């Protein structure tokens, strides 16, 4: 019931503490089928049949909700291939991941621990801020990459997941049998260079 209630609120209405950090994240607050509804209506098998996942990424009009969904279902596809249970979405967790990605993209840092805001320093603090207080185990994967080639949303997501998979610590999070929930959130970073990067946060908990 809690998840259904959050479904009705997101992405345009957020609890006060989350609102403080997400109100400026306009791309995340935009209404989209891929923001919430897709997680309720699709399994890995049916998600991979959607035509939208094969659209070419355009950084100037990036649909972060579609990319987030591709990351989520690509992770679950990998877990199923390794005989692990698929993870469930938690929209509170998705807000926590979005906060961290947006903070990294805004303040131009790349680390699990926020160097500039003590209230958002650790993933545990960010989850607690978003209402997740009973988790016994949590995990976080972060990724940052520039987009050079023409990729589809699914191809970009799969590249990110493959990068995680090649790192032992990140792979452990991807395939951890203890976790039950997963959320992925992307933000665009515009550094003072010719390259535009995307920043991804994956958060997990049991």
Q: Which secondary structure elements does this structure contain, and how are they paired or packed?
A:
Layout: H1 2-9, H2 16-22, H3 26-29, H4 37-41, H5 44-47, H6 64-81, E1 88-89, H7 91-107, H8 123-129, E2 138-146, H9 153-165, H10 168-175, E3 181-189, E4 197-205
Parallel strand pairs: 1-3
Antiparallel strand pairs: 2-4, 3-4
Helix pairs in contact: 6-9, 7-8
How would you portray this structure in words?
The protein is α+β, with helices and mostly antiparallel strands. 44% of the residues lie in helices and 14% in strands. The chain has a four-stranded mixed sheet with strand order 1-3-4-2, with helices on both faces. α7 crosses α8. The protein starts with a helix and ends with a strand. The N terminus is likely disordered.
Oligomeric nature of the chains: single chain
Q: How far do the termini sit from each other?
A: 18 Å
| Rg measurement, Å | 16 Å
What helical percentage do the residues reach?
Answer: 40-55%
- The helix-and-strand class reads alpha+beta
Count of discrete alpha- or pi-helical segments spanning 4 or more residues: 10
Low-confidence stretches: 1-14
Strand order of the largest sheet: 1-3-4-2
Order of helices and strands: HHHHHHEHHEHHEE
> What's the overall average pLDDT, rounded?
91
How many strands? 4
Percentage beta strand = 5-15%
Shape field: globular
* Main sheet record: 4 strands, mixed
